[in-house]
Design brief:
Largest sheet: 4 strands, mixed
CATH architecture of the largest domain: Orthogonal Bundle
CATH topology of the largest domain: Peroxidase, domain 1
Number of domains: 3
Distance between the termini: 70 Å
Strand order of the largest sheet: 2-1-3-4
Number of helices: 14
CATH class of the largest domain: Mainly Alpha
Strand content: 5-15%
Helix content: 55-70%
């Protein structure tokens, strides 16, 4: 099944009456199968996925519970149009499982899509202030794990059971973060790749910022950046990416001086370390050529 649908379903069914949702989704499947016009709309490749989602949401308004009304339209929109009915059948079957099977290990991209689907379900019902708090908490926890080799070793060890790694996180975050943050971190363990734990958290930070209309700029600086400098940097980056930018600054003395800034795929390296590395890349071929020339002129 589509990884995003898998993640979205996991989030919805965590807090819903799964048996009731399964019954409702089964009825939705039968309704779509029985109505040629509705089935034609949901499987029409000429219609954009948001439109297909809106059509089914409108049809289900007032007829099923909120979890079913959210889950069914998301499923048909997240897959290719010809697969819409199959996606509906899958979520109905998934809701009907008494004990959901452990999530399979996916490739890097698919695992993040699954985490993204889970996050989308939570973000839909979160307020902007809550999202801002969650974003900050995810970033801070990622830095804690990143800076603690022992903790990082435990949370990225695929040989340890998922339940054990989740228990470690629950103990660390209990009563210290928003429940939404705790759910996201726990699902990164269940639905992500173990070695990508910190990377997936940072990816979620960016996704959370986007959910509230912002972009995240990760800044590694050799020295402290004062408030005025941060505001100027955020304004300049905002003009470059076309959206408000929030800075997340980390001090890294190894840069020697300057800073490295990353916003999505945009990377600006204005550090002394970066300049030295670029200089070395330029000099090595030149020196190799010069040595070859000297050998050539000095030979017999």
């Amino acid at each position: 099944m589509n990884p995003a649908v898998e993640g979205y379903s996991a989030a919805i069914l965590e807090t819903a009456d799964s048996a009731a949702v399964a019954a409702e989704l089964g009825a939705v499947v039968r309704m779509v199968e029985a109505h040629d016009e509705l089935r034609s709309v949901l499987t029409d490749t000429a219609l954009a996925s948001p439109l297909r989602r809106a059509v089914l949401a409108e049809v289900l308004e007032g007829r099923v519970s909120d979890p079913a009304r959210r889950l069914a339209p998301f499923a048909v929109a997240a897959v290719r149009a010809p697969d819409a009915l199959g996606a509906l059948r899958w979520v109905a079957a998934r809701a009907g499982e008494e004990t959901p099977a452990e999530l399979s290990l996916l490739g890097h991209r698919a695992a993040r899509e699954r985490i993204g689907g889970y996050a989308d379900a939570l973000f839909e019902v979160a307020s902007p202030p809550q999202l801002e708090e969650v974003e900050d908490q995810l970033f801070r926890f990622a830095r804690v794990v990143e800076s603690d080799p022992q903790l990082r070793g435990v949370l990225t060890d695929r040989e340890l059971p998922v339940e054990l790694r989740q228990a470690v996180v629950r103990d660390l975050l209990a009563d210290k973060v928003d429940p939404l943050t705790a759910r996201l971190v726990s699902f990164v363990i269940a639905g992500g790749r173990p070695r990508d734990f910190v990377g997936a958290l940072d990816w979620l930070v960016e996704r959370t910022a986007r959910a509230r209309g912002w972009r995240v700029a990760r800044v590694r600086s050799a020295a402290t950046i004062d408030r005025a400098q941060q505001e100027a940097m955020a304004a300049a980056l905002g003009r470059m990416v076309g959206a408000p930018v929030e800075l997340q600054v980390r001090i890294d003395p190894e840069l020697l001086s300057g800073a490295v800034v990353e916003v999505g795929d945009l990377r600006v390296d204005a550090s002394a370390r970066g300049r030295l590395e670029r200089l070395r890349e330029e000099l090595v071929p030149a020196l190799a050529g010069a040595n070859g020339l000297e050998r050539g002129t000095g030979g017999p």
